[in-house]
Queue: 3 jobs
Job 1
Amino acid sequence: MISEARDKTVASDLVDAVVARCRSELGDTATWLNPEGYPDGLALCIIDSIWSLGVRYESHVVPVLNRYRAIRREAGAEPSKDGTPELLSVAHALGAGGGFADALKNHQRTSTKAGAPLKADAIIQVAQALLDAGIASAGDFRRAIGENPKVIEELWRATPGQGSSDIGWRYVQLLAGADEVKPDRMINRFLSESGASGLSPSESAALVRAAASRLNVPARVLDHAIWRHESARRVRRHKVVVR
């Protein structure tokens, strides 16, 4: 098994297999894209990462993001610059969790358990916790995870729906501009078909990091290249639009 610590050695044969498949199926590394994310928009990072877990991105997350953007632009604001103060102001003006969910036209919950909080409520909770910790912008968030990653991770994991898996935690960092990996089902399918199956999210992320190092690209770039490749395969099968 692969160590969960980033500084431990990943099994060389698995890295070899993933690297070989990347070279044969993903094309020249020079053509790979660096995912844009929201380097100036912590609000969009939070909304995207909270809403993306357990759903199809194009059909559930993109409409929510677009509705939030529309709300802000109608108010004469630029959503790509919003931080936690702006996100909280919008949510409370709309009536907090329920009203925010109404405006976004999405009442999905953080889990399938009866009475689980709305994702809209989870967004408000984590935005307030981040703001209370002095994190108002994406730049603040990047600095905080560089200086006190465990503290910020614990804060994030206290959010409904975020405690049992580190996928959301990794994804919000990636969206904010960190060199991270989101080991979702797309990434795991690519790894599994490369011979690395049954991995935990941390193990999958460690393997992608090791392969990226071997390929001399940032981990976030390899993550995105794999995601696009697997999404394109899915499009061909199911005609689902990629992110």
Job 2
Amino acid sequence: MRTRPVLLRMTPIAVLAFITVGSLALGGSAETSEVSSSESAVEKDATGTKFEVVLYYFHGARRCNTCKTIESYAREAVEGKFKDALDAGTLNWTVLNTDESENAHFVKDFGLVSSSLVVVEIDGGEAVRHQVLQEAWTLVRDKPGFIEYVQGSVGEFLK
């Protein structure tokens, strides 16, 4: 049986606390490590199992203009269409630097080779599926197409 990395086995709230504390300890700010959730806002299904979707933007310490554009467009995509889900805590927008030791495992966890957008579904505290949004790099010069692609991908996970 394949075991999941420790961070993916943690409850969503524990993950958020871990990210927030790590960011603050490193002098981070809401600009670079933003998380939108609270225990009371995470929705539950009919059995009481917590679930949520996280759209991660992973980047390294050195960032080119294209990397910054991908982050900006992705933020605009989720905040523009999924404000209610962000406010409810069923969708989280999280930006993480994979060059920081506590985030380095994500490179292996999701098979990342560069800055990446990854949609992850968490059910009952477990990451049950994910999708690396590979087309983000090819669509970055087509803002409407990029936003439609991200919104469509996130929307599929929120169904």
Job 3
Amino acid sequence: MRLFVALDFPEAVRASVRDLIARLRPLSSGVRWARPEGMHVTLKFIGETDPVKLDAIHAALGSVHSVQTVEMQFRGLGFFPHERKPRVLWCAVESSSNLAALAAQIDSALEAAGSPRESRAFVPHLTLARFDSHKGLKGAEKLVSAAEELKSYEFGAARESEFYLYQSVLKPSGAEYKRLAAFPFVRDSQR
């Protein structure tokens, strides 16, 4: 099974993302757009995992905690690796400082459960679209220009106190995500 850990966010943010995608979709035919209902803020991609390891993963994730909720602002657009050669169009996630600490804590806990540590720096974002390498970068210039104009576009905000373990099921129509477990991470610091 293919697993990852992520934060969810409110429907109001999804609606704002959905509206923006509808506005940008006509600008490029060489793009595969993400479905807003499946979007999440990935904290750790675990990858292919033997189901036998699920108990250890649950125990590891259950040990993760913070004294405060994670606050996120969804604002602006950008590209990975950069706008001159875009592969991914994303929405930036500006967050409270404990989001990176939470991702690091999850990474560390899962390493103890047998999952390799992340090799890339944690960059919180929502993937909006992927450029199809088979179709080239047709229309990319228009999307880059539109993204430049939308650098401060506000999608909304979220305050989260739990993260989730998801299973990703790859299908011809795209990945489908199944929530396997919820992990409340905010613990009262007075205990």
